[in-house]
Amino acid sequence: MNKVILSILEEELLSRYGKDKTYKFMHSNISPRDLVRSFANESFSFFNRAFLPNYFKLPYGPMHLELADDVDQALKSISGWKELLVWPRGFGKSSHICTGLGIYSCALRKRPYFAIVKNSFQSQAQPEVMAIREELQYNTDLNEYFGPFKGSTWGKGELVTAGRWPHGGIKVQGFGVGMRIRGAKHGPHRIGIVVMDDLETLESVESRDQRDKIRGWHDRDAMQAGLEPGEVDNCLYFDIGTRLHMDCLVANLMKRPAWIHRFWQAELSPAKNQVPWGRWKEIVCDLSNENRLKAGLQFFNSHRSEMLEGTEVSWKDGYDFYRLALIKLGEQKVGEETVASFEAEMQNNPLSWDQRVFKVRHYYHMEDREGELWLVPDSWGKAVKYKDCDIYGACDPSLGEGDFSAIILMARSPYGQKFVIVADLKKRDPDRIIDDILFYCRGREVECFGIESNAFQKLLYTDAVKAAMEKQEYVPFLPIPATGKKSLRICALAPDLSNGYILLNRDHRLLNEQIEDYALKGVAYDDGPDCLALCDSVSRMHSGGSIML
């Protein structure tokens, strides 16, 4: 028996049963070979460590152990599985789920049909299938325990192992985004495992049309691959990728409750003391010193405990804090506090701190005090009775395809603070917009309600006034033409949001997300912040100022 596999077997026995039982196992009538086969069949992590050492050389981190447990559970499921892996670049998500799970499915005959979907079939999916093929054909340990594997179909983008299901005959096939996968069959079998790996690129996420196209194909085609008419879809779906954009496929899947979400960042906690790190940066950035990197490492080793105080990383054996610091340094420009590419690739945060417009925001909550509703700031400001506030509202119809319409109501306290009490962002038709505006104004003494009235949006203002009169409901509507640049209107909110003059409610998830993620470039949706700016302008105008749009 291979000494490496024997060593891994002993480690597995020790971790499961302790020293005494391990000794009994190793000296029992059960052969080590049978134990290896048994453990490999029930443990994805054991299989990877024992049979794929070229792919898994480093000790597992917590995210790898978590994934291995998920795979073991998924393979036992009879009702399907949907899991999203959002890991940093370089953490081995493709090695585990594409290569590792593909080989595992063939070796242990877990499913008869395994599909790998990449952004490109020829440049990405084919090489992935070839990597699986190479291991199945030339990995001597795999063939000794579970082979032989080579079947009659043994191509670049498709292979079928020797034998016939359930004793073999497993098909592995690569697909590219946009290719027909729904309805694909291997004999009588639908696809049993679908791995979708980095379906989007940095270029594709910049276009809303491309984002919508990939998302539509993902939901209507790829996610129907295992569906058998009249039966429960027991296919295992794994989406893996990095959050490249606030409206990318990965970001959308993170909001779907039916999915299991596994989100990880490389750096979990920064250094507590930044002074020695500043000195280290001066050393390694000294271009006149040819040995600057060596000198920086020497400085770090001399001040290690001080520089690492408070730090935490998710996978210390793969990316320790010093390595992450070097990665950031290699991409950082003078004067930048954070690095956009590091934030996106390693932290799964498409927007760096520098790119965010609204860096600081303040919140409030509502309380029932002796039967009266109070608005209570979380950080600073005075709690006020809701009935003592003036109410203002606004609507940004945003009737363009794919945009949200936004309805926002704001309560202005006698002390000047403004509380966002309604933030309704939806994709809806004009009639529904008007009905929702009247619903939110009903029972509230609204001082003024502004509706953006550029071009065709003016028709909605007219229809809203007619609808209110027909229903005998008084709403002081005001048409507001937007004449300035939208980004300037939205950015004008920054002082009031950061100083706590405008308070948000944590229950308004979609508005809070759009405000948090707002940047001058690459923003997915800005309907909420734009409507908030409109509502704020209405309140200023009515309290003695003027509307500046």
Describe this structure in words.
This protein is α/β, with parallel strands linked by helices and 549 residues long. The chain folds into four domains: 1-42, no CATH class; 58-263, Rossmann fold; 267-345, no CATH class; 363-542, 2-Layer Sandwich (Nucleotidyltransferase, domain 5), CATH 3.30.420.280. The protein contains 20 helices and 20 strands. It has helices at residues 3-26, 32-42, 44-51, 62-76, 93-107, 121-138, 140-146, 208-220, 249-253, 275-284, 292-302, 304-307, 321-331, 340-345, 430-441, 457-470, 486-491, 494-499, 509-516, 527-542, and strands at residues 81-86, 113-118, 158-160, 171-176, 185-186, 189-190, 193-197, 236-241, 260-263, 267-269, 312-313, 363-369, 372-377, 384-385, 390-396, 405-412, 418-426, 446-452, 477-480, 502-505. The strands form four sheets. A nine-stranded mixed β-sheet has the order 14-13-12-20-17-16-15-18-19, sandwiched between helices. Strands 3-4-2-7-8-1-9 form a seven-stranded mixed β-sheet, covered by helices on one side. Strands 5-6 form a two-stranded antiparallel sheet. Helix 1 packs across helix 3 (44-51), helix 5 (93-107) crosses helix 6 and helix 10 (275-284) runs antiparallel to helix 11. The longest helix has 24 residues, at 3-26.
